[in-house]
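2024-03-11 09:14:02 DEBUG pipeline.ingest accepted 1 chain
2024-03-11 09:14:02 DEBUG pipeline.ingest length=214
2024-03-11 09:14:03 DEBUG pipeline.predict start
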Amino acid sequence: MVVSSEMTALEQYIYDEIVPRYAGFDAAHREDHALTVISQAMELLGRMPACDIQVRRDILLTAAACHDLGLVNGRENHHMDSGKIIRADAKLREWFNEEEVETIAQVAEDHRASGKSAPRSIYGMLVAEADRVIDGDTIIRRTIQFGQKHYPELDREGHIERAVAHLREKYGRGGYLKLWIPWSDNAVRLSELQDIIADDDAIRRKVSDIYNLL
């Protein structure tokens, strides 16, 4: 990454050392994903209504950047592995005390969409929301790409069936995806996606069209 004189030492560490680690992950979680979550988290912070809760930009930035580092060990326990990686990162102690590092680690542990309870801090809620960028085409593409990587034995129809089933389970009405930030635009976008998912013909056609483009 090009060094900027206006970039803080923490930001330089994040963009030069943390974000590049995503290059080795699956297609849905590469560097562009990390940068999108960072951008979305910062946007949510900027739109946060005035309240008594204080949110530090440096903690949020770091949490957003580090939230998926555990994917280096695979997806199944990546949220917990991310927390371990964050706690073990001695470099972070240059900017944060132990309590702050623990907060960042908990954000990673709490961000997973399948989590049964709300994140433990406002930082966790912001990153979890930022990680749920609700764009129908992007979600469907990432779902298909995940299937292609992890279920290579499936044929075209198998991938479409798997994608549709996953979309219903996670994003459909009654699905396990939860949104935590009321001022986010995600709720409106999710409702639009749910309309498509609820229509059997529409969702199969949409998944099929995007599959054909990959």
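2024-03-11 09:14:41 DEBUG pipeline.report Residues 136-213 form one domain.
2024-03-11 09:14:41 DEBUG pipeline.predict end
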